[in-house]
Design a protein that fits this description.
The termini are far apart. The chain has seven helices and twelve strands. By secondary structure, the protein is α+β, with helices and mostly antiparallel strands. It holds the Pfam family PhyH.
């Protein structure tokens, strides 16, 4: 297994400086960036949002997380998943300001460009706040939870502050979307142990880097990833948005989690038909 801290992975982080970009603008992707994503199923992009946007949306999201958070147990009394982060879903339906970010042309254009889709839909968003002292996020693949009939799915992972290694940024297992083992594992202690061993045996390269302010990563539904513990005294605040091909259809659920997702994130969608519920608007 190759584990490295890669500060300039394949020189793809020498992107154009777009200090005055806005969420209403496209983010031009190079052929090299698209090819890198297609091969590895993740990519980190600089200057997706500018500092003013991070500050503005970070404040809105933090306020909503504080308002909606129902977690009452102290960290030491939670299980591994509970220690990983506080998570609040579909904030775009709760706050018009956050809706502007989640449904933005900028994020949607990147998602569509990476996946090679004409248009994308929202699956759902979620804030992931890893508290000071919060534990690891175990190895997992997101699409285990999703009753979606295509692998054209991608998650935008948007840190709301610069995120050093000590704060627990995402760690990606490059090219691991090729691995079928572990796709039936729910996130938790078992997935952490089994996938850590399997990824090592198969020699997939692990990439873990700090995130600069305004840097955003995109990863596919079947690439395996994790995050380290938050060893700082500051909450690691992250907003995520999950996109799927606008033509994605609902598949017959394969586990109880997919049934729950069907009922929660795409209510009324029918098996074999395009997922076009009111919670899954086309964006971009």
């Amino acid at each position: 297994m190759k584990i490295r801290i890669c500060l300039n992975f394949l020189n793809l982080r020498k992107n154009r400086t777009m200090a005055y970009s806005t969420i209403h603008d496209n983010y031009p992707l190079s052929r090299e960036q698209i090819a890198f994503y297609e091969e590895n199923r993740f990519i980190k992009l600089k200057h997706v949002l500018n500092p003013e946007e991070i500050q503005h949306f970070g404040a809105l999201i933090s306020e909503e997380v504080e308002r909606l958070n129902k977690e009452s147990k102290p960290l030491e009394e939670r299980d591994t998943y509970g220690k990983a982060f506080l998570q609040i879903f579909n904030l775009w339906t709760q706050n018009e300001g956050i809706k502007e970010l989640v449904l933005s042309k900028r994020l949607a254009s990147i998602a569509a460009g990476l996946m090679g889709c004409e248009k994308v839909r929202i699956y759902h968003d979620q804030a992931l706040f890893k508290e000071a002292g919060g534990g690891i996020t175990p190895w997992h693949a997101d699409q285990y939870y999703w009753p979606i009939d295509t692998d054209k799915t991608v998650t935008a992972w948007i840190p709301l502050q610069a995120t050093p290694l000590e704060m627990g940024p995402l760690e990606f297992s490059a090219k691991s979307h090729q691995l079928l083992f572990g796709r039936d594992l729910e996130i938790g202690d078992e997935s952490e142990v089994q996938l850590k061993q399997k990824l090592r045996i198969n020699n997939f390269e692990h990439v873990v880097e700090p995130f600069d302010l305004g840097e955003v990563s995109f990863h596919s539904g079947w690439v395996f990833h994790r995050a380290g513990a938050n060893q700082t005294e500051q909450t690691r605040k992250v907003m995520t948005v999950i996109y799927m091909d606008a033509e994605a259809k609902l598949k017959n659920p394969e586990n109880q989690n997919q049934i729950n997702d069907w009922n929660t994130w795409c209510p009324g969608a029918k098996i074999g038909e395009v997922i076009n519920s009111p919670l899954n608007p086309v964006v971009g």
